[in-house]
Amino acid sequence: MTTESAPTAPAPPAAKSARSLAWTRRRHSAARFWREYRTHKAGLFGLGVLAVIGLAAIFAPLLVGSDAQNVTDAPGKPMESPSGEFPLGTDQFGRDLLGLLVWGARISLSVGLLAAVLSVAIGTLVGITAGHFKGWYATVIMRVTDWFLVMPTLVLAIALASVMSRSIWTIILAIGVTTWPTTARLVRAQTLAVESRPYIERAQALGGGHGHIMTRHVLPNVMPLVLAQTTLVISGAILTEATLAFLGLGDPTNVSWGGLLQDAREAGAVSAGHWWYLAPPGLAIAIVALAFTLCGRAVESVLNPRLGASR
Predict the structure, then answer these.
(1) Where are the beta strands (DSSP E) in the chain?
(2) What distance in Å separates the CA atoms of residue 307 and residue 305, rounded to the nearest whole number?
(3) Closest to 93 measured CA to CA, from 105, 112, 79, 82
(4) Is the four-CA dihedral 280, 282, 286, 289 of positive or negative sign?
(5) 3-state class percentages of the chain: helix first, strand second, coil last, to nearest 5
(6) With contact defined as beta carbons under 8 Å apart, do 263 and 90 qualify?
(7) Axis-axis angle for helices 153-163, 168-176 (nearest 10)
(8) What is the rounded CA–CA span in Å between residue 17 and residue 20?
(9) What is the pLDDT along the chain (311 residues), one digit of tens a residue?
């Protein structure tokens, strides 16, 4: 004789009201954040620039075609100067540099974003655990963090990228595992400040374990700092990716802004005076890095008004 399982009891009204109240608070917090962010003109400018470049990167196949990187069927002659047909000229293979610049945005932005997320994730994990457990664990982990801080980040990234296979994921890993110490120290300081508050003692007295304290109480309080730090780390990650690609340590099968600069150097664009091969990717790197920095400063000012960042 088969027995049917009892139907799941509906959630009590108190639980539903608690969830709806939490979502309402999140929506109000997001709306308040956007109202404050809109008062920062520099942050809005940076966000607008990033939106335009991001949309161009996403819709690159529609804007410039999927064959813009093709070497065998290049539409122009090598090293053509800017013209009506090729607004930014052509490269050493006759490819349209405007199309390559748009395609390069996909790799540069993707590597910068993923490397920054990896870096901030490592730094957040190290900072929260070091601030929570203290004792010998914090001493050991912070000495390792100090070692990474005093070592040149670019040198460590070059060393990792040299011994591993040349791919996008190698660049992401090399940047992510060498740029986390600053985030770790900031998050640890914030964790120590949070755990000195009375409600942490009450949570521990009520039986809250280490995981509960770190995920339910510490992490939500350090997330504003983590968010602001992420936007600032992205610009540095994009610059590091461009540097590694310029040094020939990037993925040769994909076009990036740093890779375009490296191709221009190999083609002798500097000595030949072919400025259109050098200037666009260099300006693109500088503009995106500046835009992320402006957004990061605005986010930091909104989340921590005591910093007094200019608007």
Answers:
(1) none
(2) 5
(3) 79
(4) positive
(5) 75, 0, 25
(6) no
(7) 150
(8) 5
(9) 444 445 555 555 555 576 777 678 778 878 888 888 888 899 999 999 999 999 999 998 888 877 778 777 778 888 888 888 888 888 888 888 998 999 989 888 998 899 999 999 999 999 999 998 888 988 999 999 998 888 888 888 888 888 888 888 888 998 998 889 999 999 999 998 888 888 788 887 888 788 888 888 888 888 888 888 888 888 888 888 888 888 888 877 888 888 888 888 888 887 888 888 888 998 999 999 899 989 888 888 887 655 444 44
The burial class, CB within 10 Å (0-12 / 13-18 / 19+), for 188 is buried
Given the structure tokens 């930014």, which residue do they identify? 88
Rounded to an integer, what distance in angstroms lies between the CA atom of residue 123 and that of residue 92? 42
